[in-house]
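Support reply, case 0932

Customer input (verbatim):
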Amino acid sequence: MKHILLVFIGGGFGSVLRYIIGKYLNSSQTGIPYGTFAANILGSLLIGIILGLAAKNNSLSQSQTLLLATGFCGGFTTFSTFAYENHVFIKAGDFTSFAVYTIGSFIVGFLAVFLGMFLVK
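Our regenerated output:
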């Protein structure tokens, strides 16, 4: 039960922060979801750092990892929102934004995870 509570608390904080970032960074003028992109990249960096610390000499406990990686990063990152926003781009026929957003999110997201792991070493 303790583990479920830790994931719940972390997820709540992550979701609220994602909402705030989206509110201020998603552009209603261009339709580009900069906030979602930023949350996914920052979340990728954070999970790299968190799991890197957890793997490095057991620097984080299982409870801390559940709170931060599973809970916070799980609530903060936004794959379902990312998928929906790409659906909107495709439905509107905006294949350029779809391609740039999708490829950029994957490449920069993976690089952010690697950077997070590297920073911990």
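We compared this against your earlier run and they match. Two observations from our side: The radius of gyration is 16 Å. The mean pLDDT is 93. Please reopen the case if you see a mismatch on your end.
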